């Protein structure tokens, strides 16, 4: 079974090479890309089942080097689950992009560039999830970031180049901080293997631990877009092509959150900064959702809600109990799927209405009732209405915080409730204006409509475009993602039980001897 572990990264890289070589054969590129991601999802599902039933993680020492010295790929329940959900999301977005490419040609997502770059992005994400040492985690980050630099500037419009430059600069700063942290950790403990770092770092003075700890948290916090280093995200994501925005919103920040969870539960378990994380979580939730309320453009609304809901994940991480970590894992799954689905739905709205501004879009309920459903279901899910997965995840986080019961925890509970209500308000306001508002009402303009008068100074969407046809495969891909969001609710019992086991396992120290035994 361990032989399957390297395939998680190797298959996307080989697929990228094949699609690059056969850049002029569109059908072959599509077949290879879709087949690769489907194969990875199956492999990851098999590994998840084996790890969960067997109770033992899989570790592979690449090249046969002894475990402390070579590159170790490590697949436990947490890593396997995230690879499964990520590969499903990547496959759905790929199908969406195929439909967009068939309708628009190579203008937005030129297939000869998009497919190989997309598979390299996937390889970086998967590598980050299964990395067993800090330097390989850094390599995974760099692989996905290099690919994201290309994807975020596809189309080479002025706005994409400008925001892409900001994204690149911020990402490079984060990478430099991460690399500096790795160098300092190696200098302090003589290794970058995570299990060995966890064993040795506890022997360092608390002050030294705190410096190393905070350096990693800042580096990963930039990637996860937590406050106050979240300023770059709302301006960077909305300008990219719809498939790129969807996969970035769903996955890239979660790689940063994943690294934070590994840092807090395993590397620096003996050096707690939970109070600081609670304050950061509250600020991330509230500032992010207030930004969403002040926006008039759908992609920017969703980008700010993305920031605010990362705050829930930091909240659960800072509670630092088994129940809270399990709830956080479940919430990560929920947010990956729901946020991606919403961005895909907004991509369909843009094609149907020619704009993503709620000041311009109207009457879509009559014009596209199916599209109304595809937006409405994930919107109320993200807002936390029962019985959906968003409600389940938030209630679990609030219960975990209430169990601890400190005054700061109570403040966070109220902050989480406020964030949920404002999220629902922002998304349902957009629903009301874009789908229910009639064309006659839209003719009153911003100043004449009290419902949106306060949005007159909000950043505008791109210039009005021509409406475009929506290929059926784009609707099917979005509908499939909506079905996945519903599956998170329908199968919440067994899935949440799995997340509980993950939470329990993450708080158990992983020793070097365990990894050596698993790799052997």
Automatic annotation (TrEMBL):
Coiled-coil annotated spans: none
Sequence intervals crossing the membrane: 6-23, 30-51, 71-99, 111-131, 137-154, 166-190, 210-233, 240-261, 273-294, 301-321, 327-349, 370-388, 408-427, 473-497
InterPro entries listed in its UniProt record: CPA3_Na-H_Antiporter_D, NADH_UbQ_OxRdtase, ND/Mrp_TM
Keywords, sorted A to Z: Cell membrane, Membrane, Transmembrane, Transmembrane helix
Mode of membrane association: Multi-pass membrane protein
Places the protein is found: Cell membrane; Membrane
Domain NADH:quinone oxidoreductase/Mrp antiporter transmembrane: residue ranges: 131-419
Main localization of the protein described in the UniProt heading: membrane
Family: Belongs to the CPA3 antiporters (TC 2.A.63) subunit D family.
PANTHER family (alphabetical): NA(+)_H(+) ANTIPORTER SUBUNIT D1, NADH DEHYDROGENASE
Protein name from the UniProt record: Na+/H+ antiporter subunit D
């Amino acid at each position: 079974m361990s032989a399957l572990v390297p395939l998680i990264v190797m298959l996307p890289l080989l697929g990228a090479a094949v699609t690059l070589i056969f850049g002029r054969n569109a059908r072959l590129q599509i077949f290879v890309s879709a087949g690769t991601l489907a194969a990875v999802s199956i492999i990851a599902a098999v590994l998840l089942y084996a790890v969960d039933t067997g109770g033992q993680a899989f570790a592979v020492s690449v090249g046969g080097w002894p475990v402390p010295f070579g590159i170790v790929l490590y697949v436990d329940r947490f890593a396997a689950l995230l690879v499964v959900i990520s590969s499903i999301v990547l496959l759905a977005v790929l199908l969406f992009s195929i439909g967009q490419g068939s309708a628009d040609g190579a203008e937005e997502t030129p297939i000869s560039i998009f497919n190989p770059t997309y598979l390299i992005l996937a390889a970086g994400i998967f590598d980050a999830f299964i990395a067993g040492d800090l330097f390989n985690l850094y390599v995974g980050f760099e692989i996905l970031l290099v690919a994201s630099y290309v994807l975020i500037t596809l189309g080479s419009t002025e706005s994409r180049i400008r925001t892409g430059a900001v994204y690149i600069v911020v990402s490079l700063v984060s990478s430099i901080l991460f690399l500096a942290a790795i160098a300092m950790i190696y200098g302090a403990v003589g290794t970058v293997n995570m299990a060995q770092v966890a064993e040795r770092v506890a022997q360092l003075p608390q002050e030294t631990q705190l410096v190393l700890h905070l350096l990693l948290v800042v580096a990963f916090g930039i990637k996860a877009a937590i406050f106050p280093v979240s300023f770059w995200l709302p301006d960077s994501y909305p300008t990219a092509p719809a498939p790129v925005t969807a996969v970035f919103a769903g996955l890239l920040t979660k790689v940063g959150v994943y690294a934070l969870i590994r840092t807090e539960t395993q590397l620096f378990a003996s050096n707690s900064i939970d109070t600081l994380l609670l304050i950061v979580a509250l600020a991330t939730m509230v500032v992010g959702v207030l930004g969403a309320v002040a926006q008039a453009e759908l992609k920017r609304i969703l980008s700010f809600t993305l920031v605010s809901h990362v705050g829930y994940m930091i909240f659960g991480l800072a509670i630092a109990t088994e129940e809270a970590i399990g709830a956080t894992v479940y919430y990560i799954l929920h947010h990956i799927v729901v946020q991606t689905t919403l961005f895909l739905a907004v991509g369909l709205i843009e094609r149907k209405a020619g704009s993503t501004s709620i000041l311009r879009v109207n009457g879509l309920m009559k014009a596209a009732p199916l599209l109304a459903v595809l937006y409405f279901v994930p919107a109320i899910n993200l807002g936390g209405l029962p019985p959906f997965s968003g409600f389940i995840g938030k209630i679990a986080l609030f219960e975990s915080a209430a169990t601890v019961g400190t005054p700061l925890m109570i403040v966070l509970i109220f902050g989480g409730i406020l964030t949920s209500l404002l999220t629902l308000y922002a998304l349902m306001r957009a629903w009301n204006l874009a789908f229910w508002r009639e064309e006659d009402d839209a003719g009153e303009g911003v100043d004449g409509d009290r419902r949106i008068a306060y949005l007159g100074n909000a950043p505008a969407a791109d210039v009005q475009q021509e409406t475009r046809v929506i290929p059926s495969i784009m609707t099917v891909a979005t509908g499939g993602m909506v079905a996945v969001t519903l599956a998170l609710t329908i199968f919440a019992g067994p899935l949440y039980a799995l997340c509980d086991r993950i939470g329990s396992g993450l708080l158990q120290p992983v020793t070097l001897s365990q990894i050596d035994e698993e790799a052997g």
